[in-house]
Each structure stands twice: as structure tokens, then as C-alpha cells.
């Protein structure tokens, strides 16, 4: 079982401490949420793990191998996939070519292997029927499926999802939750940060709540929901799952 671990992360901007001694971990086949109020530091934590922001202090490791110095593309080669909040499909490429563009970066694969992997991903994420559709023509739910399929083209051990439920309708949210569970069942570790607290907690085995740059609570959805401090600073007393 692989473990992606962030240990004692800290980050300051212009002498303002945004993240203070944050530690968390994601294991293979586990869905983990990283949640908190706006300005709490959760996005900075997430970006430090992805490699978009350099930590001032702390370490990021995969199975105790230190990947902290590596840029984002270096971490991708070590097994960290990333799905940004913003649309990341190539608008003027077909679904097929969007996925193939990623597969072609895997120089160790032969052409026949790339083609086989492409067909596997198109079938796995139920997007074969739109394989020739252009990126600009996709619905929000279709786009998310294509983006996740592209991320899986690199066969990551972990995938980090930034606001996966943003900009999609309720039916698509349900669809994306099903896909995330599918990733977990494949043995992939999933880290989610999203403002959609209810749907995120619904699918997480474990969650961390960040407030004031600190982890103030961690545990199962039920444990998070029952935490009085979390209610006071984040969920409120009227929140229901």
C-alpha cells in the first residue's frame, strides 16, 4: 500500500503565516477530503502537495521517498496526478486526441500500447461515444470525465482533485462521485478539496479540516460532523449530511 504524506508544512506570504505545521496523509484506495473556510489555508496546503506552491518548511513523501524538491511535472512522474478546477481539456482537440496527447508523453510505451490504453480509458470512463467530439463542445460532466481519463493516462498512484464538483449540474455531481469511488476501487488514493462540503464528506473515508492555517480536526465524516469546533468555525449548527 502506497502512502502520500505531507509532514509539518508551513507557508508564509509577506510575513503572514498562511499554513502552520500541517500534516496529513493519503493511502492507496482511500478518498480523503481537505476542507475549511475561505482563507483558512487549505488551498495553499493542496497546492504545496501538488507542487504548484513551494513549501517554506516541511516535507512531501511517497512511501518515505522525499519529493519535496520536485516540480509539479517531476511529482507527476512519481505518481501524483492532478485535476485542476479550471477546464484543462484542449478545446480544439477531439476527446481521442486529448487523451492521446498525454499518452504520447510516455516514451516507454509503444504505439500499439498507447492505442490499447486509449481504448481502455474511453471504455472505462464511458466516453467512447464522444471520442471524436471537440473539447469545446463537451458538457461539464463530459469534460470532467475526459479530464480524469487524461489524468489516468499516466497511471498515477494518487490523484488530487481541485474543486471537482464546481461548475457541473447535480446529475453530473452524482456521476463524478461515482467516478471517484471507481478510482478508489482501482486502488488509487484520492485527495479532494472542494467548497461542496456535503458531497465531499459523503464520499470521503477521512477528512481534514483546516482553519487559521492549522488542522483543527480529522477523521471520518461522522466524526467531522460531530466536532463542535468544526461547527463553530466552518459548518454551522444547522448543517446536515
Helix-strand blueprint:
Blueprint: E1 3-13, E2 16-27, E3 31-35, H1 42-50, E4 57-62, E5 65-66, H2 72-78, E6 80-83, H3 95-103, H4 111-124, H5 140-152, E7 158-162, H6 170-185, E8 189-193, H7 197-203, E9 206-211, E10 214-219, H8 221-225, H9 228-235
Parallel strand pairs: 3-8, 3-9, 6-7, 7-8
Antiparallel strand pairs: 1-2, 1-4, 4-5, 9-10
Helix pairs in contact: 3-4, 3-5, 5-6
Q: Which residues sit in consecutive blocks of at least 5 with pLDDT less than 50?
A: none
CATH class of the domain at 3-90 and 159-235: Alpha Beta
Strand order of the largest sheet: 6-7-8-3-9-10
Helicity range: 25-40%
The CATH superfamily of the domain at 3-90 and 159-235 is identified as P-loop containing nucleotide triphosphate hydrolases
Strand and helix order: EEEHEEHEHHHEHEHEEHH
Instruction: Give me the Rg, rounded.
Output: 18 Å
CATH architecture of the domain at 3-90 and 159-235: 3-Layer(aba) Sandwich
Q: Give the overall shape.
A: globular
The CATH topology of the domain at 3-90 and 159-235 is given as Rossmann fold
Strand content: 25-35%
The class by helix and strand makeup works out as alpha/beta
Task: Describe the main β-sheet briefly.
Answer: 6 strands, mixed
The count of helical stretches stands at: 9
In total, how many beta strands?
Answer: 10
**End-to-end separation:** 30 Å
Mean pLDDT: 92
Amino acid at each position: 500500500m502506497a502512502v502520500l504524506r505531507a509532514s509539518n508544512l508551513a507557508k508564509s506570504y509577506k510575513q503572514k503565516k498562511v499554513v502552520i505545521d500541517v500534516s496529513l496523509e493519503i493511502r492507496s484506495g482511500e478518498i480523503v477530503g481537505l476542507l475549511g473556510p475561505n482563507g483558512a489555508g487549505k488551498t495553499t496546503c493542496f497546492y504545496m502537495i501538488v507542487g504548484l506552491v513551494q513549501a517554506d518548511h516541511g516535507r512531501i513523501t511517497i512511501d518515505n521517498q522525499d519529493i519535496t524538491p520536485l516540480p509539479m511535472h517531476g511529482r507527476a512522474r512519481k505518481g501524483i496526478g492532478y485535476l485542476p478546477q479550471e477546464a484543462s481539456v484542449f478545446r480544439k482537440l477531439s476527446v481521442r486526441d486529448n487523451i492521446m496527447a498525454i499518452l504520447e508523453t510516455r516514451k516507454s510505451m509503444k504505439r500499439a500500447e498507447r492505442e490499447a490504453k486509449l481504448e481502455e480509458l474511453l471504455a472505462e470512463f464511458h466516453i467512447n461515444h464522444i471520442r471524436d467530439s471537440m473539447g469545446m463542445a463537451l458538457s461539464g460532466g463530459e469534460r470532467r470525465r475526459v479530464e480524469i481519463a487524461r489524468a489516468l493516462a499516466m497511471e498515477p498512484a494518487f490523484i488530487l482533485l481541485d474543486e471537482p464538483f464546481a461548475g457541473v449540474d447535480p446529475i453530473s455531481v452524482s456521476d463524478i462521485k461515482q467516478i471517484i469511488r471507481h478510482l478508489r476501487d482501482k486502488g488509487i488514493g484520492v485527495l479532494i478539496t472542494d467548497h461542496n462540503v456535503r458531497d465531499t464528506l459523503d464520499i470521503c473515508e477521512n477528512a481534514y479540516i483546516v482553519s487559521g492555517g492549522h488542522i483543527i480536526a480529522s477523521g471520518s465524516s461522522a466524526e467531522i460532523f460531530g466536532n463542535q469546533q468544526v461547527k463553530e468555525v466552518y459548518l454551522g449548527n444547522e448543517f446536515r449530511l
